[in-house]
TrEMBL record:
<dbReference type="InterPro" id="IPR019481">
    <property type="entry name" value="TFIIIC_triple_barrel"/>
</dbReference>
<protein>
    <recommendedName>
        <fullName>Transcription factor TFIIIC triple barrel domain-containing protein</fullName>
    </recommendedName>
</protein>
<dbReference type="Pfam" id="PF10419">
    <property type="entry name" value="TFIIIC_sub6"/>
</dbReference>
<feature type="domain" description="Transcription factor TFIIIC triple barrel">
    <location>
        <begin position="28"/>
        <end position="111"/>
    </location>
</feature>
Length: 115
């Protein structure tokens, strides 16, 4: 076994990190009212210079990627809640579980409707 080959192989390898959560900002906040847990949402060409976001029959086009101040954190709503004596329970009604975070933000603009 040649140790020189091993070291060059590790230098050639790059770690590829794939983000599955995308923080999206829309130019019109009212457009996000169409979202619900059953919405059909697709992100197309996210690695290209012009990604597209499709929510149901609405298309949103890329404005710019930018880094946000602070961190965007993603949570999922948990259905199971441990029963605690009501005297000592000061939790709010919604229980959330941390999923992930990002500092990247994709700004989108609505361009057209699909018929």
């Amino acid at each position: 076994m040649d140790s020189n080959n091993d070291s060059s192989d590790t230098l050639d390898c790059e770690e590829i990190v794939e983000e599955t959560l995308i923080h999206v900002v829309m130019d019109n906040a009212d457009e996000m009212s169409i979202l619900n847990p059953n919405s059909n949402v697709r992100v197309l060409a996210v690695d290209s210079d012009s990604p597209v976001l499709q929510i149901e029959n609405k298309i949103f086009h890329f404005n710019e990627w930018r880094y946000i101040t602070g961190t965007a954190m993603f949570f999922e709503r948990k259905n199971e809640v441990k029963k605690i004596d009501p005297l000592y329970d000061n939790r709010c009604g919604t229980v959330l579980q941390y999923v992930g975070s990002t500092r990247k933000c994709l700004e989108m603009t609505k361009k057209e409707n699909i018929q």
